[in-house]
Design a protein that fits this description.
Elements lengths: L10 E6 L3 H11 L14 E5 L7 H4 L4 E2 L9 H11 L6 H21 L24 E2 L6 H16 L2 E4 L2 E8 L2 E8 L5 E11 L20 H8 L4 E2 L4 E8 L11 H5 L3 E3 L13 H15 L4 E4 L6 H4 L1 H9 L9 E10 L2 E3 L11 E3 L4 E2 L12 H17 L11 H5 L3 E3 L2 H4 L19 H20 L2 E2 L1 H18 L7 H22 L8 E2 L13 E4 L2 E5 L21
Parallel strand pairs: 1-2, 1-8, 2-5, 8-15, 14-16, 18-19
Antiparallel strand pairs: 3-4, 6-7, 7-8, 9-14, 9-20, 10-13, 11-12, 12-13, 17-21, 20-21
Helix pairs in contact: 1-5, 1-11, 3-4, 4-11, 6-16, 14-15, 14-16, 15-16
This protein binds succinic acid.
Length: 574
């Protein structure tokens, strides 16, 4: 039953999530910059988050923010080219152009807001190089504690400007009235079901790493926004592209401690079980993770090595990473560090135009939950904080300008062109027709809390086995059977608490990831299929989930193709 007692008065804008994208939008909307000429009044903005305001995946981001901020050898054209190359043919080049052109101003704004980035002795920003970047262009803070610094600056600004901050609240579902989003139904901090109403709702709920048993993402990354969009029939795309970070510490801690790509940028080496190097350490992440998975399979091992012993001043340069290594008895100046790939970043998400508008009126999305088209099949290192800043700000400007509905730009362009082919449900999920009794959830525990924990664990294990770095039709079907059986067992009633709600969301998101990964019969970017090891020209197109099921967008507009590539020609289809 909905309880109206504790809901805030209707808001102009409700922001769901408190990472860099959500707070960049909230701060701009609540206290517009004087340069916009709109005065300082701002809108009545609420931020709803299921944990504390400062607890988001942004806080964990190590590497930094990629932006062209200095150095004659760099240019936005080069940043664009690197991003397109990492995205393996599925980026929207207009979206990437927007990202690289507007990024530097957003970083400067953050500095003006109080964020402190590492500098060289002369005062210039200390730029690092990471995988897939052709030059050093990554700004960082505290060595590899950039996200924490970005989050600190934004949290302070949000607390000073938002009309309502709803911490420990859990959004259950989007309120859709008259074809528009009117806010959300949520569980309040006291566990009451409440409607939080708003003219405009912003999904900035972050990622989905908790779909997998091995991840760098915090426990909160449970695909909540993605799942709410899927349940409301709001189009979602590219969800098969879960990026695995190659250098997560192989250690029982969860989330896995990350050994930032910046270490390889400074010269750390990857070594196999025999101590041999086997891949270019600065190749894009998908390439490195795949090479590692192959080496681990051939050598029958569960981890490989990161050799950072030659790095000068490791502890002074990377104090956060050094502290976590010393805490478990590893000395990076002497020891090789055990590593294995871990689920890190969902490149796809809720389909938006270049202003963050989704296909549902009144609903916007930015950051990891969104699919703007900037990442394509594989995100370039340190482009994620940047994306949150750039598209969080664009969305805020569009709301303030009174924009309505999506326009045909970015990843939304091909969707609005309407040229899509529905995929036969039996092809997207062949397991759904098979008896699911082979994979029933574990025994029902007496204690409902431990039951939810066990079931979440079971889902995460089947996903890492069936839909990890390398997948096949067979492995995806195995995971699909388990996930469907879990879904059938937990039902569709209103979750009683956050843990149950997160489990429902993980099941919803897992189903869509498994269906997309089954339909995409090729290897591209972060999606590697052992039964389809090559990229196919036919598959230079997006897979979308709509209220009607799974569909393939037929053909990408010219701007979505890597410069210099030829037309899309069909070789093998769904
Ligand atoms: C890293 O520091 O390696 C992670 C940063 C990112 O995900 O881009």
């Amino acid at each position: 039953m909905v309880d109206s007692g504790v809901a805030p008065a209707p808001l102009d804008v409700l922001v769901l999530g408190s990472g860099v994208a959500g707070l960049s939008a909230a701060v701009r909307l609540a206290a517009p910059l004087s340069s916009t000429g709109r005065g300082a009044a701002g809108l009545r903005v609420g931020v709803l988050t299921k944990a504390e305001l400062s607890q988001s995946a942004t806080r964990w981001a190590q590497g930094g923010v990629a932006a062209v901020l200095g150095g004659d050898e760099d240019s936005t054209d080069l940043h664009l080219a690197d991003t397109l190359a990492a995205g393996a043919g599925l980026c929207d080049s207009d979206a990437v152009r927007t990202l690289v052109d507007e990024g530097p101003s957003r970083v400067r704004e953050l500095i003006a807001m109080g964020a402190v980035f590492d500098r060289r002795p002369g005062g210039a920003l200390d730029l690092a190089r990471e995988g897939g970047h052709s030059t050093a262009r990554v700004v960082h803070a505290g060595g590899a504690a950039t996200g924490a610094e970005v989050e600190r600056a934004l949290v302070d600004a949000t607390r000073a400007s938002a009309a309502a901050v709803l911490e420990e609240w859990f959004a259950l579902d989007l309120l859709v009235e008259g074809g528009r989003c009117a806010g959300v139904r949520a569980l309040s901090a006291e566990g009451r079901v409440v409607e939080v109403r708003a003219e405009e709702t912003v999904l900035a709920t972050g990622g989905a790493g908790q779909l997998f048993a091995v991840t760098t993402n915090p426990a909160e990354a449970t695909a909540d926004g993605l799942a709410m969009a899927l349940r409301a029939g709001v189009p979602v795309a590219d969800v098969e592209f879960m990026q695995f970070h190659p250098t997560a510490l192989h250690h029982p801690a969860m989330p896995r401690p990350l050994l930032s790509e910046a270490l390889r940028g400074h010269g750390a080496l990857l070594r196999d079980a025999h101590g041999e190097r086997f891949v270019d350490e600065l190749a894009p992440r998908d390439v490195v993770s795949r090479a590692m998975a192959e080496r681990m399979r051939l050598q029958g091992v569960e981890s490989l090595w990161l050799d950072a012993t030659a790095l000068a001043s490791f502890d002074a340069r990377f104090p956060t990473i050094a502290a976590s290594l010393h805490a478990i008895g590893l000395d990076p100046s002497r020891d090789w560090l055990p590593i294995a790939p871990a689920a890190h970043y969902l490149s796809g998400g809720v389909l938006t135009d270049l202003s963050g508008a989704t296909a549902l009126g009144g609903l916007w999305a930015a950051g990891e939950v969104a699919c703007t088209g900037v990442h394509g099949a594989n995100r370039l290192a340190s482009n994620s904080l940047l994306e949150g800043m750039v598209f969080g700000a664009r969305l805020a400007e569009s709301i303030m300008a009174g924009s309505k509905g999506p326009v045909p730009t970015g990843a939304m362009r091909a969707f609005l062109a309407g040229d899509r082919e529905r995929v036969d449900p039996a092809m997207a999920a062949p397991w759904a027709t098979a008896a699911t009794s082979r994979a029933t959830p574990g025994p029902v525990a007496q204690d409902p809390v431990s039951d939810v924990i066990k079931t979440r664990d079971e889902l995460q294990r089947c996903m890492i086995e069936g839909a990890g770095v390398v997948r096949s039709a067979e492995s995806l079907a195995g995971a699909g059977e388990v996930v469907d059986a879990i879904g059938a067992a937990i039902g569709t009633g209103t979750p009683a608490d956050r843990a149950q709600g997160e489990l429902v969301n993980l099941v919803t998101a897992a189903r869509s990831l498994l269906r997309s990964a089954t339909v995409r019969c090729e290897t591209r970017g972060a999606h590697a299929r052992s039964d389809h090891p090559e990229a196919s020209d036919f598959w230079r197109r997006r897979i979308v989930h709509t209220g009607d099921g799974v569909a393939v967008l037929r053909g990408l507009p010219v701007s979505e193709q890597t410069p210099g590539s030829g037309p899309v020609t069909g070789t093998s289809g769904p």
